[in-house]
Structure formats: structure tokens, C-alpha cells
Specification:
Layout (H helix, E strand, L loop, with lengths): L2 H7 L4 E7 L2 E6 L2 E7 L4 H9 L16 E5 L8 H18 L2 E4 L2 H29 L7 H31 L4 E7 L8 E3 L3 E3 L6 E3 L2 H11 L5 H11 L4 H12 L10 H32 L1
Antiparallel strand pairs: 1-2, 2-3, 3-4, 5-6, 6-9, 7-8
């Protein structure tokens, strides 16, 4: 169905269109609307409604439709440092309102462990093969030199993350319940709007799962943009993480990124520098918190 036909079925008449990334902003006789391809999850939307979580756009379409038509939200221009804190407060509220516990079988945590362990093994082998190839060269490119200078830090990170994973697995493997929430599952500043009330937008990837994964996605998108100790503390003021959840979060954010060397030399250098900066920043975030948790024990 074409956009004009959709609008007509809603009693709207388009006066103009503006493409903005994956969305289309539509000027109509009744105000602005957003059109986007992709189906929403009706179960998630109904659950949010039942839990009185009202901080999402008003959708004019049926949740089963293969598109989204929603009201346009004028967002206030506020400093990004304030915006990230407002975002995690709202995410904490989302998780708080949708918390429930699910019985799990023996294979559930075993699969998470095996997936992460395989990921770490793959990263080790990948960087071992890569650095072996690089060291055979008489002249290294700037990006290759940058990786070679930092390869020991990458190995140390893989090793220490592996130790954390084994410890987490030992402590968690007998657990039979998991705390679950509605996950937005695509958290970034672009998906948070400040208006008369705060709004989370872009719910295409929403699902049910551990609260850890929303924080992991947010960290992946903005690790180098903010002081995440402040961000995490703000979130936990609203919704404290359990010990095993925090351990899993720290494991996930510690995984080194995969650099494929298929970009331009400038881009390769940039990506390696970002990865190394992220490794050090993550280490500085995790170490004090782990020391504090050990002191409490």
C-alpha cells in the first residue's frame, strides 16, 4: 500500500514529504507524521500499555501492519550530557514497570556461556592470525603498526574477559530463574526525544530479555561519548542491577571489537584507535566497581 493510500485511510491529506534516513516526515492537513517501513511487535506494545508505560509515540497504524505511522514529536534542544542521563532514567523506568521472572532450563545459561566463550576464542585466533601476517611484512602500514603496538593489550583483555566469563558461569549455572524486562533493544541518543514528556522512539527491535542487553547496546553506541560511570549510576538509582547481571554486562562490554582491515587506511587507523580507547575506558569503568563489590563481600 502506498503512503498516500495509507494516509487517505486515516483521513489525512499529504501536503509535503521529507526523507530523513529511514523515515519519511509527512506534512498533512492535520499536522506532521512519521512514516517508516517495518512491523511493530503487538505483544510488546500491548504489554507496555498494560503496564502504563506511555513514553512512546502514538501509532495510527495497526501493530500487525508492515509499516509504522506515528505522530511527529518536536524535540527540545538540550545538552547531550543531560540527555543521556534522562534517557537512562526512562530506561530504568521501562525496566522497572515491566519486570517479571521466567523459569529457565539448564541449557539457557550454558548457551550464553558457550556463545561468549566461542566469541572470545574466535577473537584470539583472529588477532593471532592477523598479527602473524602483519609481522611478516618488511614495511607495515600505519594501521598495522598501530595494531602491532597494542596487540598485547588486546590479548590481555581477551584473557581477563575469559576469566570473568568462567567465574560468572560457575556462579550462574545452577540458577533457575531470570529477571526479564521489555527491551527497547536499540538504545541511542537519536531514539530519545525530550518534549512535553520524554519519549523513546524506534521500537522495531523491541523484545523481552535481561535488562543487561539494553545497557550493552547503549554502551556499544556511545562508549566513547560519555562518562559511563555516571550513566550507569543514574540507571541503577532507578533500577539496580543484580550481581550476576552486572557481571554479564561487564563481560559483554569488555569484548574487543573486530577490525577487518577492509576500509581505507585512514578508516582502519580510526577504528583501531577507537577500539583501543574503548578497551582502556571499559577497564577504567569496571575495575573500581569490581573492587568496590569485592569489598562489600
Amino acid at each position: 500500500m502506498k503512503i498516500n493510500e495509507i494516509l487517505k485511510s486515516k483521513g489525512l491529506i499529504a501536503r509535503g514529504y521529507r526523507k530523513q534516513g529511514k523515515i519519511t516526515v509527512i506534512e498533512t492537513s492535520d499536522g506532521k507524521y512519521i512514516y517508516k517501513e517495518g512491523q511493530l511487535n503487538p505483544q510488546i506494545l500491548n504489554y507496555l500499555k498494560s503496564r502504563s508505560f506511555d513514553y512512546l509515540p502514538f501509532f495510527l497504524n495497526n501493530p500487525n501492519d508492515p509499516y509504522q505511522l506515528e505522530n511527529y514529536i518536536d524535540s527540545l534542544d538540550i545538552p547531550k550530557e543531560q540527555k543521556i542521563l534522562d534517557l537512562v532514567r526512562l530506561v530504568g523506568l521501562l525496566h522497572s514497570k515491566t519486570t517479571h521472572y521466567k523459569e529457565i532450563d539448564l541449557d539457557y545459561y550454558e548457551k550464553i556461556y558457550e556463545d561468549l566463550d566461542n566469541n572470545l576464542n574466535y577473537l584470539y585466533l583472529y588477532y593471532t592470525d592477523l598479527i602473524t601476517l602483519i609481522e611478516t611484512k618488511v614495511y607495515m602500514s600505519p594501521s598495522e603498526q598501530l595494531l602491532a603496538r597494542n596487540i598485547s593489550k588486546i590479548y590481555d583483555t581477551i584473557s581477563s574477559t575469559k576469566q570473568k566469563l568462567d567465574k560468572w558461569h560457575t556462579n550462574i549455572k545452577e540458577k533457575r530463574k531470570e529477571r526479564r524486562v521489555v527491551l527497547h533493544n536499540n538504545l541511542k541518543l537519536d531514539h530519545f526525544l525530550e518534549s512535553d514528556i520524554p519519549y523513546l522512539i524506534s521500537w522495531d527491535k523491541s523484545k523481552i530479555g535481561s535488562p543487561v542487553f539494553d545497557l550493552y547496546k547503549l554502551y556499544q553506541n556511545h562508549a566513547l561519548d560519555f562518562d559511563f560511570e555516571t550513566v550507569l549510576n543514574e540507571y541503577e538509582n532507578q533500577y539496580p542491577l543484580k550481581k550476576d547481571e552486572k557481571e554479564l554486562l561487564f563481560i559483554l562490554i569488555s569484548l574487543p571489537d573486530l577490525i577487518n582491515f577492509q576500509n581505507t587506511e585512514y578508516q582502519n587507523c580510526k577504528e583501531i584507535s577507537k577500539m583501543i580507547d574503548k578497551i582502556y575506558k571499559t577497564e577504567n569503568l569496571i575495575s573500581p566497581k569490581e573492587s568496590k563489590d569485592r569489598a562489600k563481600q
